[in-house]
Each structure stands twice: as structure tokens, then as C-alpha cells.
């Protein structure tokens, strides 16, 4: 019975349309990623390779690769006896992660600013305009990530950019659930406008300093979240639901 419930749950969340073989890994990864980010797959849910392979009518290989990609993006983590499970919204080491992000994103910004084009500046500005009017918190996290990645996009170190994007993916998920609670939306846009203005002027050191200040606001928000909502960090879903879904 529990297995049947789990299969039904996954079918409702992910559908069961069989993707073309050459696109299977990408399609499965994107379906899982979207469901994790918008909360349809809550933290603690076990994602077993065979269950997903059966659901999508594919071999385990594309499923395995999709799960590896999501683990690399910090959306999944591997647990003993359960395999890949949806990661918590935020971990206790989040402040350390933000400290690392400041280092990585500062370097990406430093490399990118001298190479930014007028089109890059215009694109980043368009994300700010969308953020000013967007009320769907599931979209605000995505727009925030796209704004930052546009500013970093001209960095020559592609491996650095990959690490930066992984950090932003993790933040995107947190923002989707907690931006309204934190009340940082409008304040965030003031920071973004200042960052863009400095970057457009080519003021590298000033922009990097402003970025660190901006990200440190995130550290403050994370600490507030961890102090005021500790139960949700450890148990984002009810215990009974997690037991059922883990089967």
C-alpha cells in the first residue's frame, strides 16, 4: 500500500510521460529540479532510481545521471539506506556557505565587470524591472539568480561560474519559500540597482564591496530563519508524510 501511495504521489508530481531516449536525462533532471524548487517534492523525500525509471519508462542510467546532477546542485543528498533524498531548504552550515559564496561571487564579478557589454547591462536591468513588479515568490528566486548570473557571465573562469551558479541555485530554493517571510524583496532591489549602476560604470572594487554587503544581508536573514524556525530546518514535511514517501 505504501509503495502504491508513493508511486501515485510521484505520478501526480512528475507525470509519467516517457521522454525521448536522447533527452531522458535532461527531461528527468528538469522535472525533478522544478518539483524540488517549488516544493512539490519536500525535503526528506527519497528518490529511488528504479521507481523513477519505471515511472518514465527508461533505464536507470539517465535517472542516475539526473540524480547526480541534482546532488551537485545541492538539491539532493545521499543518505545511508535511503539513497538520494531531497535536501533540506537550508542547512546549519548555511552561514559558512554564504561566506564561500562571497569569495566566489566577488571573484566572478571582478573578472566579469571589465568585459560586460551594453546588452548585458540592459538584460540585468530588465531582471530588476521584473523583480520590482513580480509578486509570485516562486519566480522571484529565479529572477534573482538570473540577475546575478548576468553580472558574472563574462568571467573567463568557467569552473568558477559553475560553482557560483550552484550556490545561487541553492539560494533560489530558499528564497522561493522564505522571501515573503523575510520581507527583503524591496530592499533587495535597492541593492541590485546600486550593483548594476556601479558595474555599468566599471567601478570594480566598489561593486565587489557592494556585493559583499548585499550577500551579508542574506547571512543575517539565514541566521534569523535558523533561530526562529528551527523545526522546519530539520522537518520540512510531517513525519508521517515523510515515512510514506520514503517507501
UniProtKB/TrEMBL annotation:
- According to the entry, every stretch annotated as the HTH gntR-type domain falls at 22-89
The protein's superkingdom reads Bacteria
Q: Which GO terms describe its molecular function?
A: DNA binding; DNA-binding transcription factor activity
InterPro entries this protein is in? GntR_C (IPR011711), TF_FadR/GntR_C (IPR008920), Tscrpt_reg_HTH_GntR (IPR000524), WH-like_DNA-bd_sf (IPR036388), WH_DNA-bd_sf (IPR036390)
Keyword Transcription regulation appears in the UniProt entry: yes
Name the Pfam families on file.
Answer: FCD (PF07729), GntR (PF00392)
Q: SUPFAM superfamilies from the entry? A: GntR ligand-binding domain-like, Winged helix' DNA-binding domain
Q: Which UniProt keywords apply?
A: DNA-binding, Transcription, Transcription regulation
UniProt-listed PANTHER family: TRANSCRIPTIONAL REGULATOR, GNTR FAMILY (PTHR43537), TRANSCRIPTIONAL REGULATORY PROTEIN (PTHR43537:SF41)
| Protein name, UniProt field | Transcriptional regulator, GntR family
Amino acid at each position: 500500500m505504501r509503495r502504491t501511495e508513493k508511486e501515485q504521489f510521484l505520478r501526480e508530481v512528475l507525470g509519467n510521460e516517457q521522454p525521448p531516449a536522447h533527452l531522458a536525462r535532461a527531461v528527468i533532471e528538469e522535472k525533478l529540479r522544478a518539483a524540488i524548487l517549488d516544493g512539490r517534492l519536500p525535503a526528506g523525500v527519497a528518490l529511488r532510481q528504479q521507481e523513477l525509471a519505471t515511472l518514465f519508462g527508461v533505464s536507470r542510467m539517465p535517472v542516475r545521471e539526473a540524480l547526480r546532477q541534482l546532488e551537485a546542485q545541492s538539491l539532493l543528498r545521499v543518505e545511508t539506506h535511503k539513497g538520494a533524498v531531497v535536501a533540506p531548504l537550508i542547512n546549519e552550515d548555511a552561514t559558512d556557505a554564504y561566506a564561500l559564496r562571497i569569495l566566489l561571487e566577488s571573484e566572478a564579478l571582478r573578472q566579469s565587470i571589465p568585459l560586460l557589454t551594453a546588452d548585458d547591462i540592459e538584460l540585468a536591468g530588465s531582471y530588476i524591472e521584473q523583480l520590482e513588479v513580480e509578486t509570485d515568490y516562486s519566480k522571484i528566486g529565479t529572477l534573482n539568480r538570473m540577475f546575478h548570473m548576468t553580472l558574472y557571465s563574462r568571467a573567463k573562469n568557467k569552473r568558477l561560474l559553475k560553482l557560483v551558479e550552484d550556490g545561487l541555485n541553492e539560494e533560489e530554493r530558499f528564497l522561493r519559500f522564505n522571501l515573503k517571510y523575510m520581507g527583503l524583496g524591496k530592499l533587495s532591489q535597492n541593492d541590485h540597482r546600486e550593483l548594476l549602476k556601479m558595474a555599468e560604470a566599471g567601478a570594480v572594487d566598489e561593486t565587489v564591496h557592494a556585493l559583499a554587503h548585499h550577500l551579508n544581508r542574506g547571512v543575517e536573514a539565514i541566521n534569523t530563519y535558523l533561530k526562529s524556525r528551527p523545526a522546519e530546518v530539520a522537518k520540512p514535511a510531517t513525519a508521517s508524510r515523510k515515512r510514506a514517501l520514503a517507501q
